[in-house]
Amino acid sequence: MSQVEFSRTVRIDTIGTVPRALQVEADEAERAALARRFDLPSLDRLQADVDVSRGAGEIIASGRIQAEVTQRCVVTAEPVSARIDEPFAVRFRPPPAAGSPEEEIELAEEELDVMFTDGALIDVGEAVAQTLALNLDSYPRAPGAETALQEAGVKDEGEAGPFGALAALKEKLGK
Q: 0.90 exceeded by the pTM?
């Protein structure tokens, strides 16, 4: 497996059908490395309670991730603090057989949270790190972001959309 910032590997041959409970927590250096990877000003806490078990041809890791992060506001670049407390489930499977490079692949919903394994190890830490990334706010906003946008002349969706254009036309016709 490749080198990752937060690695907690588990040998597949030690995983049975009865769920095995694990608790993983990133130390300060791991959190700093993950913060760099995900372009976060800070990652103050990252931990997860995880159950791993063997299913039909796959390993299932499910549990709850908890994190305290600071992101940058997409408008002002000011720090925005957030807490993440979310359930997750990841399936570990062998990589699919290689198809042609132009072959289109369609994934079913149950295949969206899949990580591939080399057959010997799974990396629960990397699964938790990727789950963190998926749960970050895509557009964090600091208090006052809306005011900054208005001052810059950016219209909100109601003003810029089709109904906003109709309202502006109505206003012009009413004058």
A: no
